Amino acid sequence: MKILVPIKRVADFNVKVRVKPDQSGIELSNVKMSMNPFDEIAVEEALRLKEAGKADEVVVVTIGPALAVDIIRTALAMGADRGILIRVDGEVEPLAVAKLLKKVVDQEAPGLVVLGKQAIDDDCSQTGQMLAALLDWPQGTFASKVSLHRNHVDVTREVDGGLQTVTLTLPAIITTDLRLNEPRYASLPNIMKAKKKPLDEICAATLGVDITPRLKLVKTVEPARRKAGIKVADAADLVFKLRAVGVI
Q1: Thinking of the domain 2-244, which architecture would CATH place it in?
Q2: What are phi and psi of 189, to 5 degrees?
Q3: Whole-angstrom Cα distance, residue 215 to residue 197?
Q4: Using CA atoms, how far apart are residues 148 and 130, in angstroms rounded to an integer?
Q5: pLDDT 10s digits, 3-30
Q6: What is the pairing mode between strands 139-148 and 57-64?
Q7: For residue 8, what are the CA distances in angstroms to 35, 42, 94, 105, 115?
């Protein structure tokens, strides 16, 4: 069975992002970029399923500019077999991403699609659900445990009330949560091997998908700064100050 893993290139989670002076978005010039952390978990889970003998091939796909090749190489160094870059310059909204991924799924015919539940740049958490709707495939979102079988997959997902386990008939869509696994680090030999692994580039225009943005970004602003707190001498002082502000 083939597993397809969509991944996204985002500003590294360790970087403190800055808003552009004209408030048109986030400043990405000279900013370290890396694979979306939730997508790293998806790649790791796909590799573990392959190592367990439940999958034959792991294919990663990303949508973005030519520079996005770097995260494909990272996934290949982790152990993925093949990479696909859908070349797009500019922002692509979740619906357009889902439509492009559907074209890839139609071509690749995977038995399972595993992707991060959300990207840390926009936090939309929509692509997996939209892809499942377009394909009319069952979906298991926010997965914290995955058990793959011959014709179905059991997904334990995190919900407000605790944990819920669903059984999905293959092919299916899974979106990964933080507690699913701990992604591996790529070793130096595997980084060198990744340079020789197949990597195909597709122009988005050839797929016949309208990727025109449907939303207009009005402005981007930094969150309001929190006021500094104060220290209290004891519990009585705390009660006094809470009463002074009308909390109690």
Answers
A1: 3-Layer(aba) Sandwich (3.40)
A2: -60, -40
A3: 37
A4: 22
A5: 999 999 998 888 888 888 888 888 888 8
A6: unpaired
A7: 6, 11, 11, 17, 10
